[in-house]
Amino acid sequence: MSDSVYTGEDFDARVRKQVEFYFSDSNLQTDRFLWRIYEANDGWVELKTILTFGRMRQYRPEERVIAALKQSDKLVLSANEDMIRRKAPLKDRNELKNNRRRNSVHIEGFPTSVTQEELEEWFNDKIVPKLPKEQAICSVRRIRNRAKEFFGVVDVEFKNQEDSEFFLSLDVSYPQGVVEGVEEKDLLKKMSLLRYRELKESGKRFGVNEVTKRRSSFKDSNNKRARKDEKKEGEGSTESEEKDNTEKTSEIATEGTKEGGEEAKGEGNEQPKEGAKEEAKEESTKED
């Protein structure tokens, strides 16, 4: 994210919304870094730490950030204005985690190029107004793989279970939103976060299931793209290089084929295992 300074008229409101999110029930239970600081200092966090977070770097100068946070009804600054914490005590963390799992939906099929800001805007414009109970959501989290790449998977936490179940009942496509009469292949795939975790755990115990198949399909698609790129590069090889390759001895060729077969076999065996073991990295409205 760019470190350019934000100068919009809604500067104060955006600052409050972002920092209030950091200290929200939804974020504190999942943000290990912030939680360790929060727990160690009776809820207080240095303001300079908050200002290093990716989405806060655009808000300068610090004095203007402080002035905006003074107007928050959810946060309080220390006497010398260098520390901040939430006003209301945090609920039991285990209870918060259970609520999050009940109220969250796991979604697959977003374009890998979509940004955090675009996702938040899409949910707020296309989904939130249709919710039956509370026209708001707690968080939208992009999930990344171990290579820190977003691969089209999102977890969204609703305010309550009723709204999450309502969302599950809808046919939804990106970027259209709620749709009717659309082919299943064009719809976003979604399930409750509880169900997803059950399937993920069963995949660890029993191998391939609905979740690990989709994880493998993501990898297969990436591998196909990589092979296409390699093929394009290979087409640019000179005639002499091709001749050189064909003149390799049969002994070397046989050995290479054998090694290639063993390697391919190893990858085939490893793939479901990696899919089951993969720990997704969450990216919400904090990027650092």
UniProtKB/TrEMBL annotation:
Keywords carried by this UniProt record = Nucleus, RNA-binding
- The UniProt regions of compositional bias labelled Basic and acidic residues, in chain numbering, are 212-235, 243-288
Tagged with keyword Transmembrane helix: no
Q: What terms describe the molecular function in GO for this protein? A: mRNA binding
Instruction: Report the residue ranges that make up the RRM domain in this protein.
Output: 103-213
Q: Name one GO cellular component term.
A: ribonucleoprotein complex
InterPro entries documented for this protein: La_dom_prot, La_HTH, Lupus_La, Nucleotide-bd_a/b_plait_sf, RBD_domain_sf, RRM_dom, WH-like_DNA-bd_sf, WH_DNA-bd_sf
Q: Which domain of life is it from?
A: Eukaryota
Its Gene Ontology biological processes? Answer: RNA processing
Which PROSITE patterns does its entry note?
Answer: HTH_LA, RRM
Give the location in the cell. Answer: Nucleus
Statement: the UniProt record of this protein carries the keyword RNA-binding: yes
What SMART domains would the database entry show? LA
Q: Which residue range or ranges hold the HTH La-type RNA-binding domain?
A: 5-94
Main subcellular location of this protein, as a coarse class: nucleus
One Pfam family per UniProt: La
Q: Where is this region: Disordered?
A: 212-288
Protein name stated in the entry: HTH La-type RNA-binding domain-containing protein
Q: Which organism is it from?
A: Candidozyma auris
